[in-house]
Amino acid sequence: MQTERFDYELPEELIAQEPAEPRDAARLLVCRIGGGAIEHHHVRDLPAFLGAGDLLVRNRTRVIPARLLGRKATGGRIELLLVHPTDEPATGPGERWICMIRGRVRPGSELLIDGGDTTLRDPVAIGVVDCHDDGTRTVAFPPGCSVLVLAERLGRVPLPPYIRREATERDRDRYQTVFATNPGSVAAPTASLHLTDALLERLERAGCRFADIDLAVGPGTFKPVQSEDLTRHAIHAERCACPPDAVAAIAQTRAAGGRVVALGTTVTRTLETAARQPGGLAPYAGWSRLFLHPPQRLQVVDALLTNFHLPRSTLLMLVACHTGIDLLHRIYREAVRERYRFYSYGDAMLLLP
User: Which SS3 state, helix, strand or coil, does residue 204 take?
Assistant: First the structure.
């Protein structure tokens, strides 16, 4: 399976720099997989395609303002991106996190987090504990410092690298789903950015039921596959959880002949990870290192709401497990021809069985 089969050409002006307003005004490409028919609608039209018997599974992760600005104790500026807390028990009294740091640092370096304000009277001093082969760093925060509270106070929204502007206060709300509750992601589950409270109520009135999972999206979601043989790619690991009530809801939906609809690739990855345990689908909490790509097929997900993804990305390959490669390229050619908006703040597509 060659990575080049998942490449495509995209005019740069189709990369969305701002979200649609209101959220559900985003355009929606609808494709019925069996026949390959493509229709053009808007996200607000979802109740025309989803209804009684459908189970909509959401990722309730919350994006944290994970981009922290600061300086070295010696004076040079640095930028730090929180990724996730470390797994190993702390050897000191403060929290330890895996981070990505822009700026040359080494173990033992002291960094002062000031949010970019060099006049801040009480910058938070943190220490670089270790440097890892994948470019990440382990950093130690001082005793009594809640990293999530610090991020809310001094952090900035970590917009994707293809959004070529600084994040604003508006992005704190807009780069967040309306049902986000559990902090931990550095990127949003973007398909769900289109959903509003009113639209969710309309879907519920149409007969849809809901279940929730958790997947903390990491920065690796934006990393393209570099190896020409995609099976050699080591996918980034992400923490996820598929709770017992979600498993029960899926079983009830299956028994009634309904459809399991994943609201995004993060939901798909979580459900398919839970399904690949010995004995099949069961509650799961841990790391997902599942790399979904053709010729694999999805075991749990029947329908998928998703945005348009980067060329050569693992997310594009995951979608191809649902569509097949040929139909995937036909969908993307149609989206480019019809001037859909791409990536995190862009439009969406609904893939139906």
Answer: helix
